[in-house]
Write a structure and sequence with these properties.
- The protein is of the alpha+beta class.
- Helices cover 28% and strands 26% of the residues.
- Strands 1, 2, 3, 4, 5 and 6 form a six-stranded antiparallel beta sheet that branches. It has a five-stranded antiparallel beta sheet with strand order 10-9-13-12-11, sandwiched between helices.
- Helix 2 packs antiparallel against helix 3.
- The longest helix is centred in the N-terminal third of the chain and has 20 residues.
Length: 306
């Protein structure tokens, strides 16, 4: 009877049903994510992790042969051992057996090392990592946001299974994770954290944006978009409507809240409709002084604007 139940459960997962196995009894709550493609990717990776926990390396055969279940239009699965050796790759099968632990993208990001780090980060339960990667058949890289989970196979070996979206959309949750982690880094390292946060090689630069830091008087310590000294107060910045969003962010945070989110309208190109942006921010204490840490992300656009 028990054997029959396990066969049924494995069949459900292989068929794409959101049913977990062993420790993964059900899919987590993905309501923090705005885009359907992101939620589909999360479901794919969690179901793959569930199958690996039960079948081990035999699951790789299913991933390779049943592509209707284990591959999306814009995403494929991969599996790595803890030492960086690729065990399965749905996009580049020729990578199997190669060690990518020291792989760097064009910005110098050590993607695999960030993946191993983020799968142990409790603030990032889905192991999100962002880097530049060439899609199969492409000659130029695009931003890839990948979800990664650690899995222990029946033989006791721990592996990382993941999948990423090419040209991924900027989820607000991505930037919430980065800001919260940046606050912890600043509070533990003080001003020594600023070069790390500013570096394009770090995980704090994502999708052509990055974490910014400013003093409580608006003086810029890390600019949201330029590697240069800005003498004007960021509180003077006005959006498309004349609103001062960074000043509003500061005022909300001074009200005693743990974090705050404000909106703004920005025009990408003259004559085009302005787009809605979201700024998520928190207060950190850097060497005893409060600073504001934040990140800017684009909000989902209505269908008529796409």
């Amino acid at each position: 009877m028990k054997k029959f139940i396990w066969i049924v459960l494995i069949g459900l997962v292989a068929g794409g049903v959101g049913c977990g196995l062993t420790q993964r009894q059900s899919l987590p709550d993905f309501s923090a994510y705005d885009y359907r493609d992101t939620r589909r990717l999360l479901t794919l990776v969690h179901q793959a992790a569930a199958l690996i926990e039960v079948q081990g390396e035999a699951a790789f055969v299913a991933f390779a042969t049943d592509t209707d279940t284990w591959k999306l239009d814009n995403a494929y699965l991969y599996v790595y051992a803890e030492d960086g050796v690729n065990l399965f790759h749905g996009g580049y099968p020729e990578l199997v057996g190669r060690n990518l632990y020291d792989f760097k993208d064009l910005w110098g990001k050590k993607a695999m090392q960030m993946i191993y780090q983020e799968t142990k980060n409790p603030n990032n339960p889905n192991g999100w990592v962002h880097y530049l990667w060439n899609s199969p058949g492409s000659l130029h890289p695009t931003w890839k946001s990948s979800c990664n989970l650690r899995v222990t196979m029946p033989n006791g070996q721990t592996v990382v299974v993941g999948s990423g979206l090419d040209a991924s959309r900027p989820e607000r949750e991505f930037f919430r994770i980065l800001v919260d982690d940046a606050v912890r880094l600043i509070e533990s390292q003080g001003a020594d954290a600023l070069p790390v946060l500013k570096s394009p090689e770090s995980r704090f630069t994502v999708l052509n944006s990055r974490v910014f830091v400013m003093a409580m008087d608006g003086v810029c310590l890390i600019s949201p978009g330029m590697d240069m000294t800005i003498t004007d107060s960021l509180f003077e910045y006005k959006d498309f409507t004349g609103h001062t969003p960074l000043l509003e962010l500061k005022n909300r945070l001074e009200g005693g809240v743990d974090h705050a989110t404000v909106g703004m309208l920005c025009s990408e190109h003259a004559g085009e409709h302005p787009i809605k942006m979201s700024i998520y921010g928190r207060v950190a204490h850097m060497d005893g002084q409060p600073v504001i840490v934040g990140a800017i992300s684009e909000l989902p656009r209505p269908a008529w604007m796409k």
